[in-house]
Amino acid sequence: MSELFDAVDALVASRSPLPPPAERRRLRQAHALTLDEVAAALGVRRATIGDWEAGKTEPRPPQREAYARLLRQLTQLYPAPESAGASREDTAAPETFTEPRPTVSPAPVDTPPEARTRAASAATPSAAPTTSDEPAPAVTATGPAPAETSRPAPATRPLTTSRGPGAKRAPAHPPAVGDAYAHGPLLVLDADADRNVTGYGAGGLILDVPAKSLPALVEWTLTEARLGAERLHGSGKDADPLLVLTEAACERYGLPGQLSESERVSGRLVEGHKVIKQLERAGWQLTKRGLGAWARIYRPAEGSRRRCVQLCIPSWRALDTRAWGHAAQLEPAELARVLCLYATRVMTPVGSPAVTGLQLMTALNPPTRASEPDADGRRHREHRPGSLGTEPMDPAPCEAPDGHPVLAGLPRFHVRGPEEKLFEEAYDWARDLNDAECMRRHLVGIDVNLAFAAAANGVVVGLASPPVHVTNPAFDAALPGSWLVDLSHVDLNRVKVGKQWRDLDGDLLPSPFTPTGQRPEGPAWYATPTVAYAVELGYEVAPVEAWVRRESGRFLDGWYKRLRDAYVATMKDLGVGEKLPPHEFLEAMDGYKSRDPELGIVVDAVKMTVKGGLGKLREKARGGGWKPGQAWAALARPTWRPDIRAAVISRARVNMHRKMLHLAAATGQYPVAVLSDCAVYAADGPSPLDILPYGADGKTVPGSFRLGVSPGMVKHEGTQSVLWGANVLEQLAGDGHVANLARYIKTGEVSAKDTGE
Predict the structure, then answer these.
(1) 488, 523, 530, 751: which has the highest count of C-beta atoms within 10 A?
(2) Would you state the pLDDT for residue 625?
């Protein structure tokens, strides 16, 4: 009989009743479960769970009985509404609350706070977005800023929230004073098979989105969603809300899930698309870059109130894999976690990490502020000291990249040499292994954490005044600028190390004055940190001429601190804390990203924000139609400042050389290759501790490399055998070129001939 009973039980299990597909999705989301979590519990693929929730397929034994059991338990926790005719706003979650739409009349004192601005906003209201690709600087209205106004709606619209354990609880009443952005900086929107839209936000928050069209979605975002972020500086502006649309959400709102080839090349949806027409009819505008992977939809500001929503569309390649890894493939809730963490610790992204990194500079150091009241009690916008101002500035001729309008007078095809062009770039230097190094067993790479961010900390740069040309100047290390000076007399065989003269093997070190590490042969243009380092090494300098900036300051200090804190906090979340002893640090770094791959994405995005933001300071002409001598769009920005980029890169290269110099003086160890912020050494063991001489007190050579997570400290980049290195050098040898082993030390894979690019 037992066999018969087992057969009956199996028959019942094969037909275990299940709720409708949409209810399955609702229950999972209500408990804040991801598709991956459910799939892992049931031993199936994530796509299988998605198909069950979409009604494309039905589960079969043995998973069906387990899946039915899960849904029964969730139903007990999150019962469906009793009313069969309840609207979706009523059925999607156990809690609801309503918010009135804003009214056009001036807000009285007791108006709900979402219809009022903070006191700081009254002093420095912000402008609507420009119609260019660049956000406009904050604009201060004349006179006392009016209270934010609002418009009454014929009826209120409910805003429904669904929550699982640990999700942020939204209040069931109008927001309090600090609640204007109670739902965080952004939402990731997804749509189901029934065209219902769900928004995933910070802290596990889940919102039902009632909007049926893109114009309605923008309106809902600005009036009801309570999205955005506080300004990073009192004279700046609050961050606009960001909506991230999945492919399903795009299709729900009439947008293509994927761009056509021509649209992908142009980077935007074709003009005249039906959704663009919908926006136009509703009075919404787009910036000059149109409706692309990153878009701004806005109406002109009313007084102090910005009315702008940003869109991010991953399926249109908004999240480049070089910066965001596999973020575009994440489930909506997981993607929301990644982007919200980045937005909280860095800023709400406004484009690629490069664009965001540049915008972060202005957000932390705004160009304008509100003036003191004049005789009529009116305030005006005025220049804010310490900023780059609101007007673009021409570089010195030596600082300008080829094709810049200030070089229009040069003969066609003229090639500028070092005596005409400032060339401050990161290291790409390598040499052959000597006999002693060939006898060792390992090649060990060490990499400087956030090297360019560390170099930006404390660097003095020119601000809002143009450069001044001087001849035969006395060098001043405190004066930012570009100097034409001959540094070929600096001999690395005898230099000052820590203010003491030391004899070294200069042939085993790169020159600190050129990216190639080759000794300069005559006068060349250098940024201030490079020339100052020649003086630090004990040599006199005599500049022939210079372009200097007498209005100067530490413009990037706040930028460094913001990115440093974001990086260190995220690494701590991954189990790599500050001030760990060397051995513990190396253990903590071993496979740290695998502990939480989503946090690993944030770490990489922070790194790209640093590098990309600095690169944007000298953005080159892009797109067809440009000819040398013509201006390009980036030149209209006050933040197009190649001199600032040169100063930071100069300082990063000098910092790297100083560490290598101190290590060589103390231990006799010299690098065999340097690529940007990575140096490779021959060693008897495979660990960085076989290079760096840590004592029993946990200290190493002062001024040299130190293991740790903080910017400027180093981590293990990779280890390969000396035999591997010899083979790579032989394989890629040619034309007197030495392959840079630092390029391949991490994985050991050599994919192509090393051209130095």
Answers:
(1) 530
(2) 82
Indicate the pairing of strand 481-486 with strand 305-312.
unpaired
- Other CB atoms within 10 A of residue 593 CB: 15
Share of the chain above pLDDT 70, in %: 84
CA–CA dist 378, 376 (Å, integer): 5
In this predicted structure, which of 115-129, 419-433, 508-522, 583-597 has the lowest mean pLDDT? 115-129
Range list of β-strands (E), 479-571: 481-486, 494-497, 500-503, 523-527, 545-548, 552-553
Q: How far apart are CA 191 and CA 162, in angstroms?
A: 15
pLDDT of residue 179: 76
Torsion of CA 410, 416, 419, 423, to 10 degrees: 120
Q: Residue 31: pLDDT above 60?
A: yes
Residue environment code for 531-552, b if the CB has 16+ CB neighbours within 10 A, otherwise e:
bbbbebbbeebebebbbbbeeb
What are the backbone dihedrals phi and psi of residue 69, each rounded to the nearest 5 degrees, phi first? -65, -45
Buried b (16+ CB within 10 A) or exposed e, 20-44: ebbbbbbbbbbbbbbbeebbeebeb
Question: Cα(740)–Cα(675) distance, rounded to whole angstroms?
Answer: 7
Residue of 399, 367, 362 whose CA lies nearest to 549? 399
* Nearest-angstrom CA–CA distance, 125 and 303: 8
Predicted pLDDT at 2: 65
Hey, which residues does 159 pair with through a beta bridge? Answer: 97
| Cβ partners under 8 Å of residue 111, min gap 6 | 147, 150
Q: What angle do CA 201, 199, 34 make, to 5 degrees?
A: 75
* C-alpha torsion 633→634→638→642, nearest 10: -150
Q: Give me the percent of the chain exceeding a pLDDT of 90.
A: 69
What size, in residues, is the chain?
757
Distance separating alpha carbons of residues 29 and 93, to the nearest angstrom: 10
The phi-psi region of residue 534 (left if phi > 0; otherwise alpha if psi is between -120 and 50; otherwise beta) is alpha
* Among candidate residues 442, 432, 448, the one with its CA nearest the CA of residue 719: 442
In the block, residue with structure tokens 């899930």? 257
Q: What's the Rg (C-alpha) of the chain?
A: 30
CB 597 within 8 A of CB 338: no
Q: Please, which residues have CB within 8 angstroms of residue 319's CB and are 6 or more apart in sequence?
A: 312, 327, 328
- Provide the whole-model pTM: 0.78
pLDDT in tens, 186-232: 999 999 999 999 999 999 999 999 999 999 999 999 999 999 999 99
Please, where are the H alpha helices in 213-310? 214-223, 247-252, 261-266, 274-281
Average pLDDT over the chain reads 85
Distances (CA, A) of 672 to 519, 652, 681, 745: 16, 19, 6, 12
In three-state secondary structure terms, 496 is strand
